[in-house]
Automatic annotation (TrEMBL):
Start and end residues of each ELP1 first N-terminal beta-propeller domain: 17-329
Biased composition (Low complexity): 1080-1097
Keywords: Cytoplasm, Nucleus
Family of this protein: Belongs to the ELP1/IKA1 family.
Source organism of the structure: Oikopleura dioica
Name of the protein this chain belongs to: Elongator complex protein 1
Length: 1222
């Protein structure tokens, strides 16, 4: 789906060479080094702008050069001399000397190992693996007959001799494939040496008289395998990242190929080269293993793989002179350095989509260009819609009529190769389409890029606004305006708007700060540039909002949407119609994209209409229709004056859009349900159309899918906040459709299912069958259609609905018969009953049917109706009272209007007897009261301690003394005083309940002052002493806990220090605490307090949760236990204080001023202490967080109960001060 183009970034002049050739060029940051066959060495520290020759003093050819980590240059020549050149002062330092010379050398990618090959190859030290300090790891012969340690053993299974492949396969069995035994005439006769990208393996390619062999070694120098292939290897080798080894070879048929070799030496696939008339001098994979460079004597190619197909997408001519050398950048996998004709050029390899009008795509594929219009058909690569000759991979562009190709002298039509425009185009590097026959060309010259606007009538060629500069990207605005991205002399990228005018090209720099990073994926949307910079998406000068840490992998845009894939494996869609609301840095952050998931590594090819075409990492194509794009088109169609409902309905069905959207977009009150029904279902509609419409009714719901909480609220976010539910929506639409269907008998018969579904949606199953009974009685629908309708309702029914019983409840026996037959009931189950019912009188039949269906409430009403009939018909029916009692219909009948008083009393009496028999005494007492039985009602009220409700005092007093013992202490005094009016007994009961004011009330109202002296005052004094003792215990315990909590806090800090630093004997003996800490971590106490334990029953877990923390000194939970007790004591104190307000009144009334003063003084002092000391135990703010953190570090916190202990209690409120006790 993508093609490649070369964007030149800079040009530098090489140093002048005489007859020698360049053997190697390397670059690292701004440092560049050049080595020649005559031993000359050149270095540059400004990116190649100026070179300085380094005299080596040795004319022998340089074999290899390499920049070391310290910035110095490592050099090895053919004579065996190894030395380094300081990167600053260019000082030489000799490292060693190989007496037999050096034929090949290569450093590992990680810079830790060095492999050297010397002559003769059979010597035991011909192959040396050295460390970065030049210490030998392995020494062995470079040529050996051993196959290697990991050579595959083949026993014949799966070989061609055991396979049946037809006639051609049978004939091929007889052909014996043997390994090459001689060198090819095309062999370069050089020793090859290369490392795999992860520095785990390296290989050698050594020519011998018996043929060239490639041997694979690991980084310890162990020989793993030797290739044994029928293909004849020719020398150039390169390792594809961490994958297969590639080598140029000659196939059995004599064709040039690039063979793929596994680490075990077996051949695994090949690339069939297109140029067969030139020798291959070099192959090289880029750092990512995506692009393959194939260099010939006069050309170089760039290949890439997509969907298991190899594409040659660049064919570039080079000068065949001594300065030719091409290499990939080690840091940036998309940078290619080309040295040719005395010039060193730096190119950025851009993988771009050659697209026109968003859907027409052209892909370079060797000799051809593959064309596909994805709006007409989604065709996965490497397949295509049509194919044109590429004219030796010349730059091409898609147009409205097809494609144009730039040759040296003309722009030609790709289909018939007819000349469209003539001119001098030999240096054209890029071509872009502006209109139907208007193109924009980029000429690459040594002084920079030049732009040319060409039509059949005119040609305008000008230099760029800034010289020198290089054009990298282009985006069309309209037929005479476009954006370009330029790299200026300072190394900054700028965006410039170019307009074609009569006098030439007019350049307008955009108000966007130049960047040192390339602007990639440049598009134009609504007159603004859209691009990627620093892996972030931009719209104009504003950065589009992303999640924290999220970056963009690919980008595409048109005038309606911006789409991007990100490192979060999501496809993002920005709706450009909302861009006007989000202008400026602050507003743009509110312009959030709509997100959907996508496959890891997916990239956008193009977007058009409602579709986004994605390419997966393997190269296959996937087309998606994001909701944001789909709903934009749906919204546009729904807003048309004349809505095409059938088209919209099909779109929603195809993309599984919830059909509520058709109603909710403009609101259900504006939805033309009748028009919608008629347009979608003409009388010629078939089963599929009916089923689709039934699905619309099924999905219809009160939930508005565009409002908050709705399915599509994110897309309709700008709508005003309204209620998410619309109660009348379903009712209004379904009723409208049902009425429209019933207007025409023929339409009703055709679409009976739709009518029934509408009724079912609104009124439910039972009333829907009532509607069916009306249709049958009015003969609007044939019997066979009614049967089909019953079958449809059987499918739609939910729960325990019984269609036969529902149809029987309509009292239409014909419909009941149709329903029974439709759902295939056994005739024995219904036929006899229907015949029996048919013989009954109509009113009586309704009662019998309702009684059979156990609809007793409705049957009761019908029974009352029968009793009220003034006719002479004999009916064997029960009385209303018996029927109510039999079926327990008291609740229902008591609510009926127009009941006589006596009938209501009789019902209440019968109901009360039933409730009493069921031991519901309180409810029975109420019903007896309603029936007029005051005595029985009072007895039952008294029995349930509701003696205040008893109206019959005589019945209440009869056995009151016996029931008094069962009355709760808090109510006993009131009960005794209210019923018996016995002052002595009442005072005694009030005093026992500590209700002293009530006791004083009885004394005063009866004039029994003696009871004050004998009963009340002694009890008040005793209670005051008890309160005083409790308060003293609380205060004492609080002081003791406060001291111990301070010690626990100090011990906790020591534990944490030990855990952080380790135990130190000099710090003292702390074994007990460490042991306790360990037991908390791993001992049984952790299991016993775990609420998640599956070994214990729920009862045991609840018991453990109620279990208190141990406060034993030295216990692991002592600290928490003390906090728990302290918190509990504050609660007890608060409870006592709450009771003191009324008790102080009684103390003063009884003259106990001393006790009152002691209690008040103690309470005031303790409240004051609590105000100062609570926050020492439970610190606030940051100190409280530190306390929680310490418990977490200590490892004693286990569940929420522990956290509740760390929450401070509320400080008791100050009570009303009694000045008489001060």
């Amino acid at each position: 789906m993508r093609s490649l183009r070369l964007c030149r970034l800079c040009v530098n002049k090489l140093p002048e060479l005489e007859k020698e050739s360049i053997t190697k060029i390397i670059s690292s940051d701004q440092n560049v080094a050049i080595a020649t066959t005559e031993g000359r060495l050149f270095m540059s520290d400004n990116g190649g702008a100026e070179f300085e020759e380094i005299p080596t003093g040795d004319p022998s050819g340089i074999v290899d050069i390499h920049f070391l980590f310290d910035g110095s240059l490592w050099v090895a020549n053919e004579m065996g001399q190894v030395f380094t050149v300081n990167g600053v002062d260019r000082r030489f330092e000799e490292i060693g000397f190989q007496e037999t010379g050096i034929s090949a050398a290569r450093w590992s990618p990680d810079g830790e190992l060095l492999v050297i090959i010397s002559l003769p190859l059979e010597n035991e030290d011909a192959l040396q693996v050295l460390t970065a300090d030049f210490e030998p790891i392995a020494v062995q012969a470079a040529v050996t007959t051993q196959p290697g340690e990991q050579v595959m053993v083949n026993v014949g299974w799966g070989s061609r001799s055991t396979q049946f492949m037809g006639q051609a396969g049978k004939e091929s069995r007889e052909i014996e494939l043997k390994a090459a035994t001689k060198l090819s005439d095309r062999d370069n006769l050089q020793i090859g040496l290369c490392w795999r990208g992860d520095a785990e393996l390296f290989c050698t390619s050594v020519p011998c008289s018996s043929g060239r062999r490639t041997r694979i070694y690991n980084r310890e120098g162990v020989h793993l395998s030797t290739t044994d292939s029928p293909s004849i290897f020719l020398g150039p080798i390169s390792w594809r990242a961490s994958s297969l080894l590639s080598t140029v070879a000659e196939s059995i048929s004599g064709q040039l190929i690039v063979a793929q070799i596994e680490r075990n030496g077996l051949e695994h696939g090949q690339i069939d080269l297109i140029l067969q008339d030139q020798p291959v001098t070099k192959i090289a994979w880029n750092a990512s293993g995506v692009l393959l460079l194939v260099q010939y004597s006069d050309y170089f190619e760039l290949w890439r793989q997509e969907n298991y197909h190899w594409y040659r997408q660049v064919l570039q001519k080079i000068n065949n002179d001594g300065t030719t050398f091409i290499f990939w950048d080690d840091c940036d996998a998309n940078i290619l350095h080309v040295s040719s004709g005395g010039i060193l050029s730096k190119y950025h390899i851009e993988a771009f989509v050659n697209v026109y009008q968003s859907s027409k795509i052209l892909v370079a594929d060797g000799k051809f260009n593959n064309f596909t219009d994805y709006e007409k058909a989604i065709i996965p690569p490497p397949m295509f819609q049509s194919q044109f000759d590429s004219l030796r991979s010349k730059p091409a562009v898609v147009t409205e009529d097809g494609a144009l190709i730039v040759t040296d002298k003309a722009i030609v039509n790709a289909q018939d190769q007819s000349t469209v425009m003539e001119g001098e185009f030999s240096d054209v590097n890029q071509i872009f389409a502006l209109g139907k026959k208007a193109v924009f060309l980029v000429h690459d010259t040594l002084e920079g890029s030049e732009l040319e606007y060409v039509t059949p009538e005119t040609s305008i060629r000008e230099k760029t606004l800034i010289q020198p500069c290089w054009i990298t990207h282009f985006a069309r605005v309209n037929d005479n305006t476009f954006f370009v991205s330029m790299l200026n002399q300072e190394g900054d990228y700028e965006l410039v708007k170019v307009q074609v005018e009569k006098g030439g090209l007019h350049y307008t720099p955009l108000d966007i700060t130049p960047s040192t990073h390339m602007y990639r994926s440049l598009f134009c949307s609504q007159g603004e540039p859209v691009y990627i910079c620093k892996n972030q998406p931009y719209f104009g000068c504003d950065k589009l909002p992303l999640k924290n840490g999220e970056t963009v992998l690919s980008l595409a845009a048109n005038d309606e949407f911006i789409a991007a894939t990100t490192t979060c494996h999501e496809l993002l869609i920005w709706d450009l119609s909302k861009a006007g609301q989000a202008k400026g840095a602050a507003g743009i952050q509110s312009w959030q994209p709509v997100r959907r998931g996508c496959e890891r590594g997916a990239s956008i090819v193009t977007l058009f209409g409602t579709k986004v075409v994605l390419q997966m990492p393997r190269g296959n194509i996937e087309t998606v229709e994001p909701r944001a794009m789909l709903f934009k088109q749906l919204g546009s169609l729904l807003d048309n004056e004349k809505v095409e409902w059938k088209q919209l309905f099909k779109m929603c069905r195809r993309q599984r859009v919830n059909l509520n959207l058709l109603v909710d977009h403009s609101g259900y009150k504006k939805f033309p349900a009748s028009e919608f029904f008629i347009e979608l279902l003409p009388k010629t509609a078939g089963k599929n159309e009916v089923d689709a419409f039934l699905n619309f009714i099924y999905e219809l719901s009160e939930q508005n899918c565009t409002h908050p909480g709705g399915l599509y609220h994110e897309i309709y976010r700008e709508r005003s906040e309204r209620s998410p539910k619309e109660a009348e929506k379903v009712k209004l639409i379904c009723n409208t459709i049902a009425e429209k269907a019933r207007e025409d008998g023929e339409r009703l018969s055709l679409f009976l299912k739709i009518y029934l579904h509408c009724r079912l949606k609104v009124v439910g199953m039972e009333k829907t069958l009532v509607a069916m009974a009306e249709l049958r009685q009015q003969k609007q629908v044939p019997v066979e259609k009614l049967s089909e309708g019953i079958k449809f309702l059987a499918i739609m029914q939910q729960g325990d609905h019984d269609l036969y019983h529902f149809s029987l409840k309509t009292f239409d026996l014909e419909l009941a018969l149709i329903a029974a037959q439709a759902i295939e009931l056994d005739p024995k189950e219904y036929l006899a009953n229907l015949n029996k019912l048919d013989k009954l009188e109509a009113n009586f039949r309704k009662y019998v049917i309702l009684d059979q269906l156990e609809c007793y409430s409705e049957a009761l009403l019908q029974l009352i109706h029968l009793h009220n009939l003034k006719d002479d018909v004999e009916r064997n029916i029960p009385t209303v009272e018996d029927y109510v009692n039999k079926h327990n219909l008291f609740n229902f009948v008591i609510r009926l209007p127009n009941l006589s008083k006596q009938f209501k009393k009789d019902v209440c009496r019968a109901w009360a007897d039933k409730m009493k028999d069921s031991s519901h005494d309180l409810q029975a007492a109420i019903l007896y009261k309603q029936s007029g039985d005051e005595a029985l009602s009072s007895t039952l009220f008294s029995k349930r301690q509701r003696w205040r409700l008893a109206s019959d005092q005589k019945a209440l007093r009869s056995d009151f003394d016996e029931r008094l013992a069962s009355i709760p202490t808090q109510d006993a005094g009131h009960a005794s005083w209210g019923v018996n009016r016995d002052p002595e007994e009442s005072v005694r009961l009030f005093v026992e309940a500590n209700q002293f004011e009530n006791a004083l009330m009885v004394c005063n109202s009866t004039g029994r002052a003696d009871l004050l002296q004998t009963d009340i005052q002694p009890a008040v004094k005793s209670h005051a002493l008890s309160i005083l003792e409790q308060l003293k215990e609380i205060v004492k315990a609080w002081s003791e806990r406060l001291l111990r909590l301070e010690e626990c806090k100090a011990n906790q800090l020591r534990k944490i220090q030990i855990m952080n630093e380790g135990y130190d004997e000099d710090q003292g003996d702390f074994d007990d605490l460490v042991s306790d800490l360990g037991s908390v971590r791993t001992g049984s106490s952790r299991v016993s307090r775990s609420s998640r334990s599956t070994a214990k029953s729920a009862k045991s877990r609840r018991k453990n949760e109620r279990k208190k923390f141990s406060t034993r000194k030295g216990s692991p939970t002592e600290h928490l236990g003390l906090l728990e007790e302290a918190k509990s004591s504050v609660g007890k104190f608060q409870k006592i204080v709450d009771e003191l307000g009324s008790f102080f009144v009684v103390l003063g009334y009884c003259g106990e001023f001393i006790l009152g003063a002691e209690i008040q003084d103690l309470v005031k002092r303790f409240i004051n202490d609590l105000e100062h000391e609570i926050h020492k135990i439970w610190p606030r703010d940051d100190e409280g967080l530190v306390l929680l953190e310490n418990f977490q570090k200590e490892g004693t916190l286990r569940d929420l109960r522990d956290l509740s202990v760390l929450a401070p209690p509320e400080i008791p409120k100050r009570f009303h001060n009694f000045s008489i006790f001060d």
